[in-house]
Design brief:
Layout: E1 8-17, E2 22-27, E3 40-43, E4 46-49, E5 57-62, H1 64-69, E6 80-85, E7 104-114, E8 117-123, E9 137-140, E10 143-150, E11 154-159, H2 161-166, E12 177-182, H3 184-195
Length: 200
């Protein structure tokens, strides 16, 4: 489990094709301080398992299903990536509950300069609309954000300078795909309402 509070902006150091999927190597300095082999780490909001970590990098295997559902398959050597270690029982939950299970891909439509802040517009697929509410939580590229305006095909988020500086949002161009994860509470509520608490 994660909080959506990005700890570091790392970069892709290497991509190795496997018989199925890929192995990516991420260069980092902060999150590598205490991660061990097998630890969970969120890369652009995708929960991956750290392999062979050392002080400056770690690797992770990415399955074909994850490549299909997320934007990990579009990364290139040198791409910037948002990194967050899994929470511990003593971690402050500064964002919201983020599982690292991407629900789909959205689109970075653009950003507007609002003085020191920025308004970022994100397009989303039709099936994702039911999980969004005004002032509700959503994870974009693994970043815990709040919906500031909600329309039928896009939502706006107000981004503070620190988030703009510490994440990959500032590297995106109009039309770029982004990972979206809905608030897990919304998904549980939907299931309860749909099945009346009787299960699937």
């Amino acid at each position: 489990m994660f909080t959506g509070i990005i700890e570091e902006l790392g970069s892709v150091a290497e991509i190795e094709e496997l018989s199925a999927g890929v192995r990516i190597t991420i260069a980092a300095e902060v999150v590598t301080g205490d991660i061990k082999n097998g630890d969970s780490i969120a890369v652009n909001g995708v929960c991956l398992t750290a392999l062979n970590p050392c002080r400056t990098r770690f690797a992770a295997d990415v399955s074909p299903e994850t490549l299909e559902r997320s934007t990990i398959g579009r990364l290139k050597v040198g791409s910037k990536v948002n990194l967050e270690r899994a929470v511990t029982p003593s971690t402050r939950l500064g964002g919201h509950i983020v599982q690292g299970h991407v629900d789909g891909r959205g689109e970075f439509i653009g950003s507007t300069d609002e003085g020191e802040f920025r308004t970022v517009r994100i397009g989303f697929p039709h099936e994702f609309r039911r999980y969004l509410v005004y002032k509700g939580s959503v994870a974009v590229e693994g970043i815990s954000l709040t919906v500031a305006q909600l329309k039928d095909t896009y939502f706006d988020i107000a981004v503070i300078p620190k988030t703009w500086e510490m994440t990959d949002l500032s590297t995106l161009s109009a039309g770029d795909a982004v990972n979206l994860e809905a608030d897990v509470i919304a998904k549980y509520v939907e299931n309860i309402v749909r099945f009346g608490g009787k299960g699937n």
